[in-house]
Structure formats: C-alpha cells, structure tokens
Input
Amino acid sequence: MTDRAPYQRGIMDAVSDPLIREIVVMKSAQVGWTEILGNVAGYYIDRDPAPVLVVQPTLEMAEAWSKDRLAPMIRDTPALTGKIKDARARDSGNTLLHKTFPGGHITIAGANSPAGLASRPIRIVLFDEVDRYPASAGTEGDPIGLARKRATTFWNRKLLMGSTPTVSGASRIELAFEASDKRYYFVPCPHCGTFERLEWQYVKWEEGKPRSAYYACKHCGAVIEDRHKPQMLAGGEWRATAESDGIAGFHINELYSPWVSFGDTAAAFLDAKRSPETLQTWINTALGQVWEERGEAPTFDRVLQLRSDYQSREVPEGVLFITAGCDVQKDRVYYVVRGWGHEMASWLIEFGVVYGDTSQPEVWGRLSDVLHTEYGGRRIRQTFIDSGYRPEAVYAFCRANPEVRAAPSKGHESLSSPVRMSKVDVTHRGAVIKNGQQLWHVDTGYFKGLVHSRIDWPQDQPGAWHLPADIIDDYAKQLIAESKITLPSGKISWVRHDRENHALDCEAYAAAAARMLGIDRMRRRKPEAEPVEPVPAEPATHQPRRGRVVRGRFR
Ligand SMILES: [Zn+2]
Output
C-alpha cells in the first residue's frame, strides 16, 4: 500500500513520533485514507497497546466501519488475528463496537451518540470524517470536545483527525489544519528536479479534451505526465509550512493519487462545474479544499435599478452604433440589441425571443426581420450568433444576412484574447478558401465578467449602462443566472444557478461584437471620432415576413 502511495508513510511516522500529540489530515477522496486509519488502529493493537476510541460521524457508520474495515483487517493480518477474538466466538467478551486485546481495547462510537463518547479513559482517539459530525452529540455538546476529555488523564495521549473538508468557516478539519504545522507533500519535477506541491491550477488540457490533461511544472513549464507520478511520489517529502507546537497537519489532494490520472481529475471538474452543488463536492473531494460560499454576481434589484426613461426599441442620445447577440436553442432564438457610446457607455435597446424549430427555415426568416429593424433610423452594425447548437443553420443564416453583418460565433471558457477570428470554409484538400466563412471565437467568461461589472458601475460615471423602462423581470433574472467564482487554486470559473441564462449569453455576444468593432478604443476625447468601420451599404433587398416574434414580452 505505502509503496504505491509513499506520502502515507510520513503520516504513519508522525503517529509513532512521541513529540507529536495531534495529527490532522485534510484530504481529498482516493488518497488511501481508509487504509491509513486502519493501519493506525492496527499499530495500537499490535505495537503499542492502549485504550483506543474510533469516532465515526454516526452510530450506523461506526457499525459499518467495524464490520467492513476493522474485521477484514484483523482477519487478514496475522499479527492481529491472534489478539482479538471474533465477536461471534463464545465468551470472547467482544461486540461489534467494543473489542479487547492484550494491553488494551478498541471502542467504535458514533459522533451522534453521546453514550459511546463518554465512558472509560482513552489514550488514543481517532476521529474519522469530522466535517460530517453533528454540532452536538445528542444534547451533550461538541462530540470532539467530549472525546477529547476522555484522553486528558494520559500524558502520552494521541489524537488523529482526518476528513474531507466542506464549507469554509464551518469546517472542523480546516480549523484544525490551520492550527497545525501545515505540511504539504513536495515532489521533484522529473525534468528540472525542483520540488513543488501539486496544485490544480497547473493542470492543463487542450480545450474539449480533458482526457489529454497533464501537469505543467510551475518552475520549468515542462509537461509532467501520469507515467512520471510513481518516481515523483517516491522522491517526495513532507515539508511543514507553518510553526506549531506538537500538531502535525497533512494536506493531500487527488493529484497525488496513484489511482487517479490528471485526465480523470480534469474530466470530473468539467462535469462538476455545471452547478454550484456538484462543484462544491468536486472541490472538497478532489482537491481536499474548503468551498468558499457564494459566487460574485450583481443582485436582481441592482439590474432593475438600471432602468432609464426610454422605451424598448428607442435609441437614446449618445449611441454611436448598435450590435446584436443571439443565443440559439432547439425551439427558439433569444436576442439582445444593444447601443454603444463613448467610454463603453451602453443602452439595451431590445431583448426578445423568436419562437420556432431552429432546424426549420421559418424561425430564421423571422430572426432576419428582427435584425433588419431600423432602430432610430440605424441598422445593426454587427451581429454575433452562437453557432454551437446548430452550426449549419447558423452558417447559412449568416451567409444570407450580410447587411447586419451576421457572424457565427463560438463561446470558450477562456481564450488568450477576448475575440478572435478563424476561417471555417476549407477546400477538400484542407486549404482555407479566401473570403470564406469567418467564425468568431469569443471568450464568454471575459464578456460575462464585463457585463456584470458594468451593471455594478456607478450610474453617474462615464461608461454607465442603461435599460429601457419597460424591461421585463425575466431579463434581470437571466442576467444573473450565472456567477463568477474564484476556485481555491485561483482559477476563475462561471457556474450556472438557473437553466435560463440566455440574456447573459446574448449580452456576452453583443459585447463581443462591440469589442470586435473597437468599442474599447473609443474615448470621449475625440467627439468627432467615427466608429472604426464604415457603415456597410444597405441594399434594399430585404422583405419582412410575418410570424410569431415576441419582442420584449414573453413567457
Ligand atoms: Zn520542472
């Protein structure tokens, strides 16, 4: 066991070190914790007999641990088999939750049951999964305090506490780890030899291919693969990062696990980050870190406070040009039309939805009508349409609607620049066709962040954003359906709280379109400055169609 996971040895060494009174292990899942706890219990039965108490979160879990973990270990370890009689044997004196051996005994208790926690004196207390303990054992108070009291009479007492952490501020293991000497396992880079901690922020992968994940050395940047892990783990060492008086703290995460690949971790992360609940579980169980409650997003009331004294489809003074962003769903297309001014001041001109099966042509005709609306006598300068859901239909629509510069766009979690273009039309030999279809790659994380920060912008400052007086509540709700969170590793991630997040998606694309036109470079200093691109010619070829278009009010 410890040969494959050598970091376990340092924890076992602390157990037998007389200078250490308490051992705290803050850990992820899949690092072999169950075996560590079993080995510690076995050590005190075989090598250093003493009264031992094992505390599990509940009485049921205490029984299960005794049956599924302790019993098989006693049975399969010759050194232990002779020392503890089977509870089923006649006059063994042993039960499921209490067993004797020469020189000591082991009691297994539930943190929810005060009876098991408060009887005989105990020298060794092993607390398992402390973040799942109740605040109080029945009416008797903190289960850890109760169990601690029982060990006070022994000068050579020892406490071991282990857990996967939960929410910051409410995590017992976090609190205990903070009071320890905070040891991390430093491993040598196979390329440059520098010792470093394995941290999530250095796990990289090609977009869309989490299985290709690798670890990028923080020091030399070289690629570290799963195959390097055994030699790194074998050469690693625990290093304390804080001062402490007799409390050894160990932190270990899944990246060290010999049973989990970097690709497994990356794939699980992408899966988990769809909701805050699953993301919390992932951060706790994969990284062994606490969850910082609450992402950053403006409030619903704050969004509605941006309502000004103009109506939807009116173009207020100050608008230099207009962009649009569209979010394509199976049976509808959401759209945002937005006017832009100096210093990135902005006015929402229209938010709406066009209903219809997007695999059929009708809905696209109606969307074309909407986008050809002349707002205050002006036409939309640039439209970005999310092509992720129906690429073929979106490409066809964009080719057919050059007047509003409709362009297929693809959202990315992050990019090296906020917006960039690539050509998608290629010949059968793979050569790019000149003047072929362009695809705009959009860093949606960047633009959602921009939208949210502008909502929180002071109304009396240059660059303020505005909403029409008749904007619906649903718009505000959708705009804050996602929030930005900063992972413990420092990575930024967006999590969705509500399935209906279309307004925010549309706004991100409309803002990306404005960025593509150079809005970030337009300063009030030069009031005569024209938008960076000339207004396209407006051929009078477009004939409006009839159909179901809900502008501003729906649902
Ligand atoms: Zn290196």
In short: The first helix runs from residue 7 to 16. The two ends are 59 Å apart (CA to CA).
